[in-house]
C-alpha cells in the first residue's frame, strides 16, 4: 500500500506539472492507457492521480472522450484569486508566527533560488520554487485546513500565469514573492500579512488586465 501511495503521489505531481505548464493543452483528451505509457506506471496510481486532479478541477472524465484537460477561461482567474486571497493572508501571518528555525531557513533558501531562476528566466524552475514556497508556508502555518483549501487555488493560479503571463517580467513576479518570504522568515507577522495582501493585489491586477484585454506590463 505504501508503494502504491508513493507512486500515486509521483503520478499526480508529474501530471499536475504537465497540465499547469501547458505541456498537456487545455481541452486535450487523453486516455488512461497513454498516461500509463508516458509515466511508465500501472493503472492504480494513474487512476488515483486522475481522481485528485478531477477534484481540483484540472481534468474531467467524459464518456467516449476519456480524460479531458480543463479549459481556461480568462474571467475565472479573478474568481480564483477572490477565493484565495483571505486564505493566503491567514497562512502568511500564521507561518511568520509559528515557523520553526528549519522552515525559516528553507524559506531563505527558496527565496535565493527563486531570485536566481527569475534572473535566468527559467520558467520551470520558477514554477517549482513557487510550489515549494507554498508547501513551506502550508506546513509552517500549522493550519492544515486552510492549507488544503488553498492548495488547488494556488495550482489554478499558476496555470493561468503560465497561459497568460509567462512572457511578462519574471523579476517583478519574483520580487512580489521574495518580500513575503523575507517577512515570514524574519517572523514579522504583521509585515507578512501585509506582503501577502500585496502579492494578491499584484495578481488581481494581472487578472484585471486579462479581463480588459490589455497587455500586462509587469
From TrEMBL:
Residues 5-72 form the HTH gntR-type domain. This is GntR family transcriptional regulator. Keywords: DNA-binding, Transcription, Transcription regulation. It comes from the Bacteria. The keyword Heme does not apply. The lineage of its organism: Bacteria, Pseudomonadati, Pseudomonadota, Alphaproteobacteria, Hyphomicrobiales. InterPro entries: GntR_C, TF_FadR/GntR_C, Tscrpt_reg_HTH_GntR, WH-like_DNA-bd_sf, WH_DNA-bd_sf. Gene3D superfamilies: GntR ligand-binding domain-like, Winged helix-like DNA-binding domain superfamily/Winged helix DNA-binding domain. The keyword Ribonucleoprotein does not apply.
